[in-house]
Amino acid sequence: MAILCVILAAAGLFMLADRLRCERQLVEWARQLAQTEADSNLRLCTNVRSRGFLRACRAVNEKMEQGKQTRIALENADRELKNVLSCLSHDIRTPLTGAAGYLQLLWQEEDAGRREEYFRIIRRRLSDLESLLEELFLFSKLNSADYRIACGYVDPFPVLCDVMAGFYDSLTQAGIEPVLEFAQMEGEEGLVYASGDALRRIFSNLLQNALRYGGDRLRIFQDGSRIGFCNPVREGEAIDTERIFDRFYRADGARSTTGTGLGLASVKGLMQKMGGDAAATFAEGELTIVLGFPSLPREK
Questions:
Q1: What is the fold, at CATH topology level, of the domain defined by 152-292?
Q2: What residues pair up with 283 in beta bridges, in sequence order?
Q3: Where in the chain is the domain with CATH 3.30.565.10?
Q4: pTM for this structure?
Q5: Which residues lie below 8 Å from residue 274, measured CB to CB, with a gap of 6+?
Q6: If you count Cβ atoms within 10 Å of the first and of the last residue's Cβ in the chain, which end, N or C, has fewer?
Q7: pLDDT for position 128
Q8: Residue 142: which of 131, 130, 134 has the closest Cα?
Q9: Given this model, what pLDDT does residue 300 score?
Q10: pLDDT 10s digits, 127-138
Q11: Architecture of domain 38-147
């Protein structure tokens, strides 16, 4: 009987010590959480090695990490929003300011020739603004998870020729005679899985990019389900090919060139919506942008 009493007393003392240890651990957690800043990297640890305490400690740390990642995402989104608003303000204000300035000159000008020239400049500035708004509208759609692009098998060569016809004057003025390397493939071998309308926008944006930043050469080639645009670029060393498809990215930080900074971002967005992708490389003074179209099984 005495032995049993000793055993029960020892068990009671053990349980009391364990309870006190658990209580101290909970108090310590409460103190740490109360004193920890919201952006702290501190994580809880436990001296109580029971399954329940270990799971609780792990769960609290996971929630703290999730909160940290959420804060980082919100901070990044806030910085990006400020950058977007700054870029939009600049890009929208530039053509509007130019058009307003020439409109004022137009009212004061009596010479018919100058008035006609001012009319042309105003139309061009307003056209730039229209293009900007269209690009913004497209980019907003591409960022919507609900936006879908209906695709089928398309021959890219006639689409490219049709787009290039619209750039004939610009290419001629720039002294660029594009070199097209498209093998005459029989059957369906030369087709790509895409949307014809999306393909036109992609080719148009890539041609505009080559005209705006490129040199006097432009090579466009097809290699199976890949289509590439290759041209020399001015100050190519400043181009970050990892960021070139980011929205509003420009190699010239001063934004001294015209354009929205959304052209290549829209190219990548359209390619991804169609199940493909776009990549860029820079070597030996030339920028190469490659469109990779999805390889899907042919319908029988």
A1: Heat Shock Protein 90 (3.30.565)
A2: 286
A3: 152-292
A4: 0.64
A5: 149, 151, 193, 194, 195, 198, 293, 294
A6: C
A7: 77
A8: 134
A9: 43
A10: 878 777 777 777
A11: Orthogonal Bundle (1.10)
